[in-house]
Design brief:
The chain has 9 helices and 25 strands. The chain is an alpha/beta fold. Strands 5-2-1-9-21 form a 5-stranded parallel sheet. Helix 1 packs across helix 8.
Length: 363
């Protein structure tokens, strides 16, 4: 019997599990490796912070999902990959051999090595850590500091400010907020932040954190009582010493088939994959969702030896929706930007439909 190991319950792997529940692979043992027993949906987490959702609406039990796919769950996470030996060491010390392994573990926040970050900031990954942000933010008073001006940082600043009413500062080391968004969306977000009283500081590179104070590289200090760390992406540490090929940033290198060029039994998708073909694939969940059907088909082909592998081609753009925390949302699509309650209703409907699909599968 062959063994398929799915490392991480990310968007693409959810599609793989759904396909396995519908059409099992004979003579294949499937193991789902996760860090913890449940999965939180990052797209609805800011809404939970804002009070839009109960926790059970944005989570499901992975053991139930694994059972539906005739798989078993290993919830201690992945500690080491030894690609040349086809082995994965788990967090509990167990070693799993595999015939085919796929990684959908996302990325890590950048900058945790800066002095004081580990001790004084709420770092949002793994996602379960984000659940500690709201209790602290509602219990404390005084300034709230959000570090990172991407879409996640903007959403968190808006939702935390709406829920707590605390003075909020959003800092970003670059000039664009949100990073990579169309100019129209950046202008709209800046106006919205100003209208909500959220102070935006761009070109503000953080040097260190201490208790109650953030020091910038310019020498300026910013006071805070709660600091939320929502910076850009960096590669997971799992691949650095694995023996598998990585890209220039340390992500697991993959061809357009989502397959490793150095170890054909390895696949990667979502934010942890580094495409070496030259096609641009931003680190965003909507791309991982589209990779799901390609990954599922290619894993089946690799395990059964049947047929050639499909290639994934990233879409040219996507509808971006950001929760503003007050019953409205911001949307951006092909250079256009819009804001209002109708946008929130659209985001809410999309998110609920996505979660319902896998909550039903998990029973």
């Amino acid at each position: 019997m062959k063994r398929l190991v799915l490392v991480g319950p990310g968007h693409a792997h959810l599609h793989v599990l759904e396909a396995l529940a519908r059409t099992p692979l004979p003579e294949v043992e499937t193991v789902l490796v996760s860090l913890g027993p449940r999965q939180l949906y990052s797209g609805m987490l800011p809404g939970w912070i804002a009070g839009d959702y109960a926790l059970e609406q944005l989570s499901f039990e992975l053991a139930r999902l694994a059972r539906a796919a005739k798989a078993r769950l290993e919830p201690s996470g992945a500690a080491a990959l030894r690609a040349d030996r086809r082995e994965l060491q788990l967090g509990d010390g167990q070693v799993l051999g595999y015939d085919v392994a796929s990684f959908d573990i996302g990325s890590l926040p950048a900058g945790p090595e800066l002095p004081g970050v580990t001790e004084h900031a709420r770092v949002l990954k793994p996602l379960d850590r984000a659940l500690t942000v709201l209790p602290e933010a509602t219990r404390q008073s005084g300034p709230l500091l959000v570090v990172g001006g991407g879409a996640a940082g903007v959403e968190l600043a808006l939702c935390l400010q709406a829920r707590t009413g605390r003075p909020t500062v959003l800092i970003e080391r670059g000039e664009e907020v949100p990073r990579g968004a169309p100019r129209s969306a950046q202008r709209l977000i800046r106006r919205l932040l100003a209208r909500r009283g959220i102070k935006l500081r761009t070109k503000a590179a953080l040097a260190s954190l201490s208790a109650g104070s953030a020091r910038l590289e310019s020498g300026e200090s910013l006071p805070f009582t709660t600091c939320v760390w929502a910076t850009g992406a960096r590669a997971p540490e799992l691949f650095a010493k694995s023996g598998a090929a990585v890209d220039a940033q340390g992500y697991l290198a993959v061809e357009d088939t989502l397959r490793s060029p150095s170890h054909p039994e390895l696949f990667a998708t979502g934010d942890c994959a580094g495409f070496i073909s030259g096609q641009r694939v931003p680190k965003a969940g909507v791309y991982a969702v589209r990779q799901g059907p390609v990954l599922s088909a290619n894993l089946r082909a690799a395990l059964t030896g049947g047929g050639s592998l499909r290639s994934y081609h990233a879409q040219s753009g996507f509808l971006s929706l950001m929760n503003a925390g007050d019953g409205t949302a911001v949307g951006a699509w092909k250079g256009l930007a819009f804001h209002g309650r109708a946008v929130w209703r659209l985001k809410d409907a999309i998110d609920r439909r996505f979660m319902a699909r896998f909550q039903r599968l998990a029973g």
